[in-house]
Amino acid sequence: MVGMALVAMLAACGENNDVIPPAIEPEKPGTDEPVTPDRSDYNSLGEGFVAHKEGDPYNTYMGLVMTGYQGWFGTPGDGSPMTQVPNQGWYHYRENEMFRPGVLRNSIDFWPDMSEYQVKYTPGEQYPAQPSGTSAYSASPFLFSDGSHAQLFSSYDESTVMLHFKWMQQYGIDGAFMQRFVGEILSADHKDHFDTVLRHAMKASNEYKRAISVMYDMSGCSENMLGTMVNDAQALMNEYALNDRSKQKFYLYENGKPLLALWGVGFNDNAHPKPSVLMKYVEQLQAQGWSIMLGCPAYWRQGGNDCVTGAEHTALINLIKKCDAFMPWYVGRFGYDNFGNDDWQNRIKQDIEKAKTFSTKDHKVVYAVHTFPGGSDRNMHPNNGYPGGDGTNTGFRFGGKFFWKQLYCDIKNGAEAIYVGMFDEMDEGTAIFKQMHVSEVPSNIPYPFNSVPTSGDYTYTNGGTDYWVTFTTKDTYGTSSSQKTGSDVRWCEKASDLNIKFQGIDDNLPTDHYLWITGQGAKMLVGDIKMTEELPKR
Fold first, then answer.
1. Strand 468-472 vs strand 489-494: parallel, antiparallel, or unpaired?
2. How far is CA 415 from the centre of its chain?
3. Is the pLDDT of residue 73 over 80?
4. To 10 degrees, the CA torsion angle through 374, 377, 383, 388?
5. At a CB cut-off of 8 Å and minimum separation 6, what does 336 contact?
6. In whole angstroms, what is the distance from residue 107 CA to residue 99 CA?
7. Is 461 in a helix, a strand, or coil?
8. Bridge-partner residues for 492, per DSSP?
C-alpha cells in the first residue's frame, strides 16, 4: 500500500529467457486426506461455517484469503496514454524520473519471473508510442550475467492480468482487491490506466471464478477528492451492474451487498482522511448500495502510535461498527524476529476478540487480518536496512517462514479472513507472484547513461562512473557527483558501496513459492489441511 514506510529491521506501504528457471506447477493433492477439525476452540469459523464452493458466488469475506492487487505497472509501448507522457514511460518502475540500474534510479526491489507472460517489454528499446530521439523515455539496460537484456510486463495488457488471475485459481487464492488510487483517477490518463486494468480484472474474475472487489486508496485525499471517489464508485456500480451480479457473478458481497473497500482512515498523520470526515461519504456509498470495508491503522483498537486518539479514535470505532468489514495495516510494524512475541500475538488476538463484539444478530462485521511475505523497498529508500540489510537479498522473508508464521498464528488466534499484501508490489518488496531467483536477477550496477541519438541507437559502457547517495536528517535522499557533508547529512555513501541488489527468491525454492504458501494458508483457514506451526513441505 502506497505511503507506508517499512521498519529498518524489516527493510523499512506510491510511486513514484533462458536464464529463468521453468515455472513450477502447483502441487497435486497428496496423500494427506483433508480434515475438518472442530474449529470452535481456536477459530471463529467453527460451528455452522460452510466454506466457499468453487464456482459459487462469493457472499462473504469470511473464510477467504484475498490479496491486494496494485495493477500500477506501465511501460513505453503498452498503448496507455499515461505512459506516453515523457516522465511516466516506466510507470512504477522508475525513480527520480528515470528507470536505470542503480539505487534511486529505479523503484522495484524484485524482478518478475517473465517466463509465462505473452507480452514483454525490454528497457532501453524504442517502442511505437515513444517518439524517436526522446531521451526522457529511454533507460539503461538491465542485464543478466550472460549479457542478455531483462524484460518486464505492463499491467495495462490484458494478458498480464489474465495470467495473474489464472495463478490465483491454480494456487487456491480466493481473489483480489483491485487498488484504485483516488489521487490518480483525477487525471484522465491515470484514470484510463486503472479503468483498463480493472476491466481486465473483471474479465479475469469471470474467467477464473475468483472473487474481486474494488479498493480505493485514500492516501493524500482532501475532502473534495472524497466526493470524486463517491461519484467514481457510482459509475463503477452502474458499469458493471454490481448490485445484481448480471455481469460480475464473482464480485465479493458482504451482508447482501457488493463490498467496496476504503483504505487509509484513522491514521495519525495528515495524509489520510479523519474518521469524522469520512463518515458522511461512507453513508453516501452505502446509499448507493455498497457494503463497506475499511483499511485501518495497526493500533486501531487502543488508539495512539499510528492511530488517531481522542474524539477521532471514538469516531473510528463507531465508523468500523457501521461498516461491514475492516483490515489493519501491519507492514512496517513488525518483522520476522518480533512477530511471534507476546506483545504482537496478544495484541492481534485481543483485536480479533474485540472485533467479534462489533457484530450483531442482524449485521456481521468481518475482521480481516493483514499478512505479508516480507518487505525491502531499498532502491527507493536505501536507508532501510542500512548498511547491509539481512545479508541474503531475499527481501527479509526467511524462506517463507515469516509469512507462514503470520498465517499460522493469526488463524490459530481466530482469524475470520485474511488479506495478503500484496500480489504484485515489487516496488516495496511485498509481492507474492512468481519472481526470479536471487542469483539470477539482473544487475543493479549503475551504468553511465548517454543521451539517445536521433537514430535511436543506444551506447552503454560497463563499469561506468559511480555516484554518491545522501540520506539527510529530514529523512530525504539525494544523489550527486561528489560527497556531501554538513549538519543535515546522516550519511553519504557511494552507490557501489551500498551494494543494493535486486532481491529474489531463495535459489533452493521455486519461483512460485509464495503463491504456494498463500494457497496453503487458504486451505488451513477453512480446515482443509491440518494446523501446523512449521512451514509445510511440498
1. antiparallel
2. 20
3. yes
4. 60
5. 10, 374, 396, 398, 401, 402, 405
6. 8
7. coil
8. 470
Q: Which residue in the block uniquely carries the three cell numbers 548517454?
A: 450
Instruction: Give the lowest-confidence range in 329-338, 363-372, 383-392.
Output: 383-392
Among 270, 292, 280, residue whose Cα is nearest residue 364: 292
DSSP strand pairing (417-420 vs 468-472)? unpaired
Whether 362 contacts 339, CB under 8 Å:
no
Per the CB < 8 A criterion, the answer to whether 24 and 512 are in contact is yes
- Residue 148 is predicted with a pLDDT of 85
d(CA 457, CA 445): 21
Task: Tell me the C-alpha distance between 108 and 428, whole Å.
Answer: 7
What distance in Å separates the CA atoms of residue 349 and residue 345, rounded to the nearest whole number?
A: 6
Instruction: Give the strand order in the sheet containing 489-494.
Output: 477-480, 468-472, 489-494
* Structural contact between residues 326 and 292, judged by C-beta atoms closer than 8 angstroms: no
pLDDT at residue number 332: 85
Place of cell 517473465: 114
Of how many residues is the chain composed? 538
Residue linked to cell 461498516:
323
CA distance linking residue 16 with residue 117, whole number of Å: 24
Per the model's pLDDT, the better-predicted residue between 262 and 130 turns out to be: 262
Set of cell numbers at residue 463: 563499469
What value does the mean pLDDT take over residues 153-175? Answer: 98
* Cα 384 from Cα 5, distance rounded (Å): 9
What is the arithmetic mean of pLDDT over 494-499?
A: 87
307-340 confidence digits (pLDDT tens): 999 999 999 999 999 999 999 999 988 888 888 6
176: β partners:
67, 212
How do residues 47-61 score in pLDDT, each as one tens digit? 678 899 999 999 999
Identify the weakest region by mean pLDDT among 37-51, 67-81, 231-245, 327-341. Answer: 37-51
CA separation (Å) from 99 to 106, 262, 291, 355, 434?
5, 31, 40, 44, 22
